[in-house]
Write a structure and sequence with these properties.
Blueprint: E1 18-26, E2 31-39, E3 42-50, E4 54-59, E5 65-73, E6 78-82, E7 85-87, H1 95-107, E8 109-121, E9 130-141, E10 159-163, H2 164-172, H3 179-193, E11 200-201, H4 207-214
Parallel strand pairs: 4-9
Antiparallel strand pairs: 1-2, 2-3, 4-7, 5-6, 5-10, 8-9, 8-11
Helix pairs in contact: 2-3
Length: 223
């Protein structure tokens, strides 16, 4: 069998038919669902985490330093350095509006220049999570700084400003492993090397998000 691909190298939206769905668990943030999927002549069952999606922010200052916050992540029992980020769990809030809100809430910062840096799918073999990472520049502190209104893991979020070059080294050495950080840092370094010419507008279309939502695979936020 010749398995060489002759078409364009880009992700394609072409879902197999789902002939059955069962929600196994409905959680506070995401659901776990079992889908019966028709692939060829066979029906297979695939479990997936139905996720609301999320955004992250690579906040870059005038010295090409980016902001990382140190936050506890229970599933891996570790404190991870990661950019500000948050779930798309507010009704009718756009990805950009969510990113601006999270930057204020987690870092006490606002930005005057926004672009889409990178879109990616977090573990698409098991979750429907869509993720959009923004590049935020022209930073300034909001009056009063970060409001300490978070609870539990978000009650205390130490900040570190790291040069983009140093951050790349931290990723490649395995010292930073959060996917928002690794993807965002490497994308920012690549974008800078190309003169920022590939950046998309902050309100650029997000086709994969629209597609996954059309499949019924986005956890709907409460009204």
């Amino acid at each position: 069998m010749d398995e060489r691909w002759s078409g364009a190298v880009e992700d394609g939206f072409d879902a197999h038919e789902v002939v059955g769905r069962r929600t196994q668990f409905a959680g506070a943030v995401w659901d776990v669902r079992s889908d019966d999927v028709l692939i060829g002549d066979h029906t297979v069952t695939r479990d997936l985490v139905v996720h609301p999606g999320a955004v992250g922010i690579i906040a870059l200052d005038e010295h090409d330093r980016l902001l990382l916050i140190r936050q506890y992540r229970h599933p891996v029992g570790s404190y991870l350095f990661e950019p500000p980020a948050g779930l798309l769990d507010t009704h009718k809030e756009s990805a950009l509006a969510c990113a601006k809100r999270e930057l204020v809430e987690e870092a006490g910062l606002q930005a005057h220049v926004w672009h889409v840096l990178i879109d990616f799918l977090n573990s698409p073999g098991g979750t429907s999570e869509t993720f959009r990472c923004f590049l935020a520049r022209g930073l300034e502190q909001v009056p009063g700084g970060r409001a300490h209104t978070g609870e539990a893991e978000e009650a205390h979020l130490p900040q570190a400003w790291v040069s983009l070059d140093e951050a790349v080294g931290l990723v490649l050495s395995g010292k930073i492993q959060n996917p928002t950080a690794t993807n965002g840092i490497l994308a920012a370094a690549a974008a800078r090397a190309r003169g920022w010419s590939d950046l998309r507008p902050a309100d650029a279309p997000w086709p994969v998000r629209d597609w996954v939502e059309s499949l019924g695979n986005v956890r709907t936020p409460p009204v």
